[in-house]
Every structure is written in C-alpha cells, then in structure tokens.
Automatic annotation (TrEMBL), chains A, B:
This is NADP-dependent alcohol dehydrogenase. GO terms for molecular function: alcohol dehydrogenase (NADP+) activity; butanol dehydrogenase (NAD+) activity; metal ion binding; methylglyoxal reductase (NADPH) (acetol producing) activity. The keyword Oxidoreductase applies. PROSITE patterns: ADH_IRON_2. It comes from Aquimarina amphilecti.
Length: 386, 386
C-alpha cells in the first residue's frame, strides 16, 4: 500500500426529505448565490423545496449552467458574485452545476488577471468561496470531492482543476430525485460511476487489499442495482444505493494508497470536446480499447476483477482478463450505451491525430498509471475505438 | 437504506515514515500536551520520532494513561491542561490514550462542576480542545472517529461518550509500528476491528447494499491478513491493510444508513469493568452467545455473511446462519483468543446478575438493533457464555 493523505471534510446529508435541512446548513448572514442548470429542477419540485428551505435567506439566482459547464457562462456568474458581493454559493444540480460552482469558488478569490489560468496553469485552489450542494443527478461524485472539469467550446478544450479548498461544505443527496431523471442520464450516471471505480482499480496489484475490496463492492453494487434503476427509477432501494455508489466512487476513499490510471478520462474528454458526446458514453467508447492496448500491464487486476465480479474462475490469467474486458463492454451495452465511436459519428477519420495534438498542447504527454501513454499511444487507442 | 448524516473531518496521514509530518500538523503557536501510556513508545522509537518532529514546539508531557483509561488518571491530566494553559493535545498511543485524550478535549472546555457528568449524563461534546493523534496500536478506530470509552475502576464502570467536537484534527498512522506490538495485542486488535464491523453489519437486511459490501470487504481483508500479521508483524503488506481495516471499521462509513447493534460491546464492557479482561477478548466471549440468543432476528444477515465471507453455499438459511456463528467463534480462536468466560476466571457464578444490575443502573435497558435486549436478556447471554 502506498502512503497517502485523506481529508474529506464535506458533511454528507443523505436520504429522502432532507432538502429542508438547507435552512440550517446555509449561513443566514451571507448573500447566497443559487446556481442551477436548464430548469429541470423547476419541473421535479427540487427548486420549490430549495426556495422554501431558504425563505429566510437572501438569495440571488444564476441559472443556465449547461452540461459540461462552459467557461464563458461561468464568467457571467463570476460577475454576479462580484457585483452582488456574494458570500456563499449553493449548487443545485448534477456534476456540471457543481463543477461550475467549484470553478467559481476558486475564481471568486483568485487574484490573477485571467481566471482561465486556474485551468490552463493547473493552479491548485487552497481556499475558495464556501459553497454547499443539493445533488440532483448521481454520477460524477463531485458532491463529495474537490475536483472539477470545465469546458471551453470555442477552443474545443475540457480542463480539470482541483484543490483542498474546493470541497463542498455540505451536500444533500435525496435519492427520490432519481425518479425524475431521464433514462439516458441514469445510464450515463451508472456508467460514469462504474468507470470512476475502474480508473482507480484497474492498474496493477499494489497490496491495497481493502481498497480493492471497496472498489469491488461498488462495482458489484452498481451491477446489482443497474437494471432496477433503469427499469423503475422510483425504486428507492435501487436509487439510494445508486446514489451512494456514485459518491463513494469518487470521494477519495478508494483512490488513496493505490496507483490510479485516469487515462480513459483524459482521452475520452477529447470526444466530448470535439463531438459533444455525453461524458459517460465517451468513457464506454475509450475504455475497452485502452485496456486492450495496455493489456500486459493490467492483466493481473483484470483477472482479479473477472474472478471477483464476474465469477470467472476457469482459464489462464490472460483468458480471464480478456473476458473481463468483454464483460465490461457488455455492461455498458446492457445500459443501452454504444461502445464504438462510429456509433456516434461518421466523421471520425483523422480524429486520433487531433486527440494527440490536443493532449500534447495540454501537456498530457504521459498518461496512465505507468505514465507511458504518450499522445501517439492515445491516438492508437482512439483508432482502436472507431 | 436509512437516512444519514456523515461528517468525518479528520485528516488521515497514512504510511511509513510519516510521523515527521507532525511538525506541520501541530500548531506552533500553542502549548502542546503530549499524552501517552506506559512507555512502550520509548522502546519502539516512536517517542523519539515525535520529539524530533516537535523540536520547535513547546511540549509538556503526561504519561501513564493505562489500558481502559481511568477517570482518576485523566483528572490529573486535566489539572495539567488547566495549570499550564494547554492549547493543543497530541495523543501518541492506542485507543486508550486517544480515548483518554478525547475525554480531556471535552473536559477542558466543560463548564459544569464534575467532569464525570460528561459520561454519566451522556453529554454530547460539540466543541472540544483540539488534538491530533499518532496511532501506535491499530484496533479501536478511535483515530478517525468522535467516540471514546472511559473507565472508573472504583465503581466498576466503563462508560461511552462522544460528539462532533471530538474528531482528531489529524491522525498519523505508520504501519511500521505494528512490528513492535506484542502478539497478544495484535490478536486483540484484529478481533476488535472484526467485531466492530459485525456490530454494524449483523442486524437485519436494510437494503444498504453498498454498506454491506464495504463491511464484508473489511471482514474478508481481516481474515486474509490475520495469519500474516500474527506470524510476522514486520510484513508491511499485512500490517498496512490491518491498520487501515481497523480505521475503516469504525470511522462512520459502514455505520451510516444501516441499523446497528452494539449490544455485544455494551455487555462485554462489563467483563472488562469486573474482571479486567482485555476488551477484544470480552467481545469474543459475548458475541457467539449474543448471536445465538438473537438468532431469529439475525439469521438472514448471518446467512449472507456465511455465503459471502465463508463461501457456505449449501443448506438452509438457518444452517448457514448457525455455521456462520461457529466460524466466527473459530476465527477468534484462530487468533489465540478464548471464547468462554470460564477460560478467563473461575469466579463467574452470579456474575450475570451483576451485569443486569449495572446495565439497569446505567440506563442501558434496551440494547441491540431492536432495542429488545433487556438487562434480563443480557444476563441470559452472559450465562450462555460462561
């Protein structure tokens, strides 16, 4: 097991009917900026619950944060924060709204000239403007971690940021929101969380037995609840486990003490940046090829995963490992998610070169747990996924 | 899954060679009270490492906190805190030293007349004197939670306390300390952590699939590493997983969203209070009888545990469940821990009545996940464990 530091100070408030607790969690002596997306929270009743809970607070609203939150949109919110002297933010939404809020948390206290530098220069945020969240879409785990992803469509860029100052002070997760989420987004959420676990698990044996068991526990639970979540999102048993899996998949606990990969995410981000394909679906496109390309490095953990998750006990390590990749692709497909780039676009010729160039431009020239995925190797992986 | 709140703000610093980080974690502008036990830290080199790391701090020492920390001993430390105007505490030890420090954290800011009231009246500590820990004995999980147990031998009492103000600010866990721990205490630590998991897991199915998987992951890992830890405590792979299991067994993550039992602990505490039997060993004595007595309520989870942990796939639920109790008793015995009261004392006749009286006196008249373990039922459980 590797040495690690683990610090997750977000207060998690989990369960049905808990949104009312906002009234005590959000400070009353600060002007609050309520941030949300395209208005689905007005249809599913969350908006009303939030406004009721905050009826004694001074609240200003900023809506319209899109999926893959846009830098230019966030700059408008930043202006509101500065003009209105906002002292606290409340993100009500999924990973995009929360990630956008994290960017704002950092940018509000950033002393440089151009807030884009936070992303471009990977500036670690040690102190941000405080905020809480109400999660409306389980998937990214952003509600209990300190990372964020922000896009800039004008330049086809999708960049990551983070730092210990970016944990939400609290997050309220009410699994009853799941019932109002479209099937497409439920499938995305499950695939996203599943892939988050794999990025932290599917490397090489590192004697972190407990972390492996926890990762496997999340994978097993996601496989177990996926059909119920898709079939009947009002099934509270399935919805609550789905929601908690998504949080635990990326709140640090399975990541600490182990090598991590994340090359699938870094490569897949380019598919969203160029084609606008849903984040989770880009992961499902890239992952099978990435694991096939890095088979020799990953085969031992792939075989362990085959045994423990899919009960594949027969065959050599290689046979088990290959079957594990197939089963993983099959799991994505069972969610209704296509796993080839050609399923999403006809215009993929030459795309691999663009990916290689973008990765080079962003300094991501050594991805993966062995830092041996160069832009050229990434391009091969992309070509394998056409 | 039940609604829950989860807040674990302790910064965990885990790994070999990390004690040096004390110099940055302990504030330099406060007078520090260094608390430890009987001096084993002077033999294993931890004391020297701590003192070296704190060479720029103002440090006063208080040693002699015993196993099952004594109220009267702690009162002496409290006097030091008040006389010396201590602003920060550093606990260097196992669960007893850390628990004692938690009591002091609460007592230092307590405004009542008699600090015993914190225990007797179960006063929840919202704000305590800040402290950090260096863990030298993996077992209780006290390094990353906000609970403590304090004893008063003059009255044969062992009482629990807690509150959100009692989380260590940080804990440093260096698994190399394991190599210097006597085998008896290693066995105790494994048994203690294992039982902590069972207290939070072995109740009834509550649709908390992920929590179940995490609990099972800790149990599986403890079973896997136990022989290596006992045989060769310098085996870092085993020691590090052992240490992390102990923390994760009681830092809140497997407890949230599920019913919990804790009756085994509450009854077993009386065995320590009366006979001075090691805490972990009292758990091993009481647990098999408690599960046998509450078999009907626990059989479904016992059967799940039989299947997932011991691969018992044949038989009825009842048969699997019975076998699970046997295997659990066998696991304790495999650690060299006796599982009957008569193995520890000849003087057990009539003891069950004393337990019933003590539980009554302390208001613990409805234990267990169904709150149906009255002092009379507890007495029966004790008699079954003679």
């Amino acid at each position: 097991m590797r040495n690690f530091e683990l610090y997750v100070p977000t207060k998690m408030i989990f369960g049905k009917g808990e949104i009312k607790k906002l009234s005590n969690e959000v400070p009353k002596d600060k002007k609050v900026l309520l941030l949300y997306g395209g208005g689905s929270i007005k249809k599913n009743g969350i908006y009303d619950q939030v406004k009721t809970a905050l009826k004694e607070h001074t609240v200003i609203e900023f809506s319209g944060i899109e999926a893959n939150p846009e830098f230019t949109t966030l700059l408008k919110a930043l202006e509101v924060i500065k003009n209105e002297n906002i002292g606290y933010m409340l993100a009500v939404g999924g990973g995009s709204v929360i990630d956008g809020t994290k960017f704002l948390s950092s940018a509000a206290l950033y002393e440089g000239n151009d807030p884009w530098d936070i992303l471009a220069n990977r500036i670690r945020t040690v102190k941000g403007l405080p905020f809480g969240t109400v999660l409306t879409l389980p998937a990214t785990g952003s509600e209990m971690n300190s990372g964020a992803v922000v896009s800039r469509s004008e330049t086809n860029e999708k960049m990551v940021m983070g730092g210990p100052g970016l944990f939400p002070e609290f997050s309220i997760c009410d699994p009853t929101v799941v019932h109002s989420i479209p099937k497409r987004q439920l499938a995305n959420g499950i695939a996203d969380a599943y892939t988050h676990v794999l990025e932290q698990y599917m490397t090489y044996p590192a004697d972190a037995y407990l972390q492996d068991r926890f990762s496997e526990g999340i994978l097993q639970t996601l496989i177990e609840i996926a059909p119920s979540v898709i079939k009947d999102p009002s099934d509270y048993k399935a919805a609550s486990n789905f929601m908690w899996c998504c949080t635990m998949a990326l709140n640090g606990y399975i990541q600490k003490g182990v090598p991590t990969d994340w090359s699938v995410h870094m490569i897949a981000h380019e598919l969203t940046a160029f084609y606008g394909i849903d984040h989770a679906r880009t992961l499902a496109v890239i992952l099978p090829s990435a694991y096939t390309k890095k088979f020799e490095h990953k085969k031992e953990k792939l075989a362990q995963y085959a045994e423990r998750i899919f009960n594949i006990t027969e065959g050599t390590i290689e046979e088990k490992a290959k079957e594990a990749i197939k089963r993983t692709e099959g799991f994505y497909q069972s969610l209704g998610i296509d796993t080839r780039l050609r399923d999403y676009t006809d215009d993929y010729e030459g795309f691999s070169k663009k990916v290689a160039k973008n990765l080079t431009d962003h300094g991501m020239t050594a991805l993966g747990e062995h830092q041996d995925i160069t832009p050229e190797v990434a391009a091969e992986i992309v070509e394998m996924s056409y």
